[in-house]
Multiple sugar transport system permease protein (Actinomadura algeriensis), 346 residues
Amino acid sequence: MTTTHDERSAAANAAAAAPRARRTRKGGDARSQRRLAALLLSPTLLVLALVIGYPVLAGFRESLFARGEGLDENGFVVEGTRFVGLDNYTAIFSGDGADAFWNAFGNTSFFTFTTVILETVIGVGMALIMHQAFRGRAFVRASILVPWAIPTAISGLLWRWIFQADGAANAVLRQQILWTADGFPAKLAVITAEVWKTSPFIGLLVLAGLQMIPRDVYEAARVDGATAFQQFRSITLPLVKPALLVAVLFRMLDVLRMFDLPAVLIGVNQDSVETLTMIAWFEASNLRYGSAAAYATILFVYIALIAYLFVKLLGADIIGEAREQTKRAERTKHADRRRKTKAVAS
């Protein structure tokens, strides 16, 4: 009788210890996986720290210094590199260069807002055309992608020839518009050239997303009587949204750093098209490295803020989607394992 009681107690203790052992083993596996992941990621993190982290920190440090002649706190003329703290930043926002900064900030934001919207609409249209099955589709795809393959400086020269006073644009419009001079026409010239060049980029990424949509979904929608617009709104846009958001995010980050196209097409030191990158380059070319680094740091913070808001508000979280996919795969694996266990037990 005593032996039976001891056996039951041992069985109960073993049954109670089994979950703890599984949890301990699972925790050990998770820690080993995290250590392995950290070990595998360490070379990438080291490279990122060298090529991204160090330049950012070095640029911020440079923005706190000034070079050349200047006045110290006692009014004496000093030469060489000296620490000025946040003076370069205060000079940007409230000094003589405040008007130039806000003008460049407005131009950068205006170009980003207008060109990305136009490129998104045109790029989606291009993707829908390239996704259709028709004779000569390969030729159409190659033709649409040609502008993206042309270097930006070359496309700037091309559009400068089109927009010159006796160019093709004025000949078609039968007007004499000074597109490459300062003013609003210069803005339109830059927007036209930028949209022409980079819309195929969005079209290419959206086309990749369209090709991942099963045709059975469209066939089921047609059987249910859905119109082409309803299919586009309820099937195409939701399923292509991840690829579209990534394309838009890349284009926003690219336009915020715009420099070469307006510099080649219109020229530097033109108020109507001057961007933050151009004004930072102008400061650096005049050996005002501290001020140039301050402009670059402000632009970096602006780009990081726009990217963060875009990811948070519109859900362009690639890592988050990958995490959700991993969780779904793990849940499916556990469900299969439970089904197999039940099948063996029965």
User: Anything to note?
Assistant: The mean pLDDT is 84. The first strand starts at residue 65 and ends at 66. The first helix runs from residue 2 to 62. The beta strands are 65-66, 70-71, 77-78, 82-83.
